[in-house]
Amino acid sequence: MNPTPEKINDSLSDFNSENAPQQQKLHKKKSSTQLPQPGTTQGSCAFDSAMITLVPITDAAHVVHGSSGCAASIWGSYSSLSSNSMLYKIRFTSDIDENDIIFGGAKKLYKGILELERRYKPAAVFVYSTCITALIGDDIEGVCKNATEKTGIPTIPVHCPGFIGNQNLGNRVAGEALLEHVIGTAEPDTSTSYDINLIGEHNIAGAIWNVLPLLEKLGIRVLAKITGDAIYKEVCYAHCAKLNVLLSSKALINMAKSMEKKYGIPYIEESVYGIEQINQCLRNIAVKLGNPDLQSRTEKLIVEETAAIDEKLSLYITRLQCKRIILSIGSFKSWLIIFAAQKLGMEVIAILTKNNSEEDKIRVKSLLGQDGIILEQNSPEEILQIINENQADMLIADKRHQDTSLMPRIPFLDINQERNHPYAGYIGILEVARELYAAFYNPVWEQVYQPAPWEGDGGDEGDRGDGGDGGEITSSSPSSSQEEEI
Ligand code: SF4
């Protein structure tokens, strides 16, 4: 998608009209694809999220046409894993400087692409425009066309300067680039009635590898992964699938809709985070593929997998049940912690919500019950007060709240752990249980509850400190209340 003002406006009004009834009904906040306003921070830019979406195509080279600052943006910190090529990990950039801003950077980009194609032999090259190169009007479309003709390697322009919007728009631009230049450009050697595409999972920490074996057991072939652990060629085949499965991602729904329109491929929206969710996902795939035998095999697999995971979880349930946790929800993955906590018999006493939709808040309320606390401000003082008043045993939030948990000396779990641990599928829930257990029974708490050397014998081992305001919390240490080891 070349980001002319008309196309950007189309994209924005598209998104807004799709969501309009719900927004009106729920007085929802601004759409996340709204154009950024000067002076406001809106998370990562469109360029960043376009890269996050496409970089997991592992055997392609990804070239940032812009300053080296853009190339060092946050997309590189996403731990999207590969089972094959590591080329996608290299940050290529045309490193635009003042001279290029004056005289244009297209020639430099072209030479750079030829050089990288000579040295690395990538399956394809994705070229990303950024704010500077879009503003000076470099013709990356022309450069990519010439480079493709010269080398025979597909070179794909992605028009995603940061100023066009933020995350969702960047994801959509990435999807448009695949639709326009990649999908449908090659045919697979064979095709089966059980070919599906998985869209929207970026294989962070290897999450998709928890799901693929399940599909394989059922005889379902994943034709294209868009884009976690994908190779370029499989994305070219995506138009031959019988079903698109959109995993936990609203951002690429337009892509699924376009493929339905263009290639007649139906799509379903599913999640693989949580036991009920993965069960439902497998069931729905089997139903959509329309084979009764597949459906009965799916039911059998669900029974087997659920029984196996229940058995493994029982060990953790005995150690974690009845613990009281405070949880911050942000991404869809943090919902998994709620499901996992419930499965483990833990009690979620309060939820910290920020930038969540009304729909999410209603869902949270129904999960928490009457006594549950929903906190929208998330200031350390308020969190501390809830910890003190409710004798919480653990805080699960993002890193910036870590200090808040240190004051009352309760265990803390970083909610963004999914970047380091694969939480998808049945195994994923076990991973969550392990993480909760490890945080709760970390031997450090033995040390933390000891009186400081300068306090002599006067310290009280069960005392978690005064929380900075003199108020004491009286719950006992997790380690002292549970001495068994897993
Ligand atoms: S906002 Fe523009 S300059 Fe900043 S990282 Fe994104 S593309 Fe680069």
Protein described:
The protein is of the alpha/beta class. It has 3 domains: 5-181, Rossmann fold; 195-308, 3-Layer(aba) Sandwich (Rossmann fold); 312-481, 3-Layer(aba) Sandwich (Rossmann fold). Helix content is 45%, strand content 13%. It contains 20 helices and 13 strands. The chain has helices at 5-26, 46-54, 68-71, 98-103, 106-120, 131-135, 140-151, 167-181, 212-217, 232-237, 253-263, 275-289, 292-320, 332-343, 358-368, 380-390, 402-406, 425-440, 444-448, 478-481; strands spanning 60-65, 92-93, 124-129, 155-158, 195-199, 221-226, 243-247, 267-270, 324-329, 347-353, 373-375, 394-397, 412-414. A 5-stranded parallel β-sheet has the order 11-10-9-12-13, sandwiched between helices. Strand 7 (243-247), helix 11 (253-263) and strand 8 form a beta-alpha-beta unit. The structure holds iron/sulfur cluster. Iron/sulfur cluster is lined by residues 45, 47-48, 66, 70, 73, 130-131, 161-162. The site of iron/sulfur cluster has 10 residues, from helix 2.
What share of the residues lie within helices? Answer: 40-55%
Envelope shape: globular
By secondary-structure content and strand pairing, the structural class works out as alpha/beta
What CATH architecture of the largest domain would you give? 3-Layer(aba) Sandwich
**Annotation field: number of helices:** 20
> Biggest sheet: strands, sense, closure?
5 strands, parallel
User: Whole-Å distance between the termini?
Assistant: 53 Å
- Poorly predicted residue ranges: 15-33, 459-486
Oligomeric organization of the protein chains = single chain
Bound small molecules, deduplicated: iron/sulfur cluster
Indicate how many domains the architecture comprises.
Answer: 3
The third-level CATH topology of the largest domain is: Rossmann fold
Strands, total number = 13
CATH class of the largest domain: Alpha Beta
Strand content: 5-15%
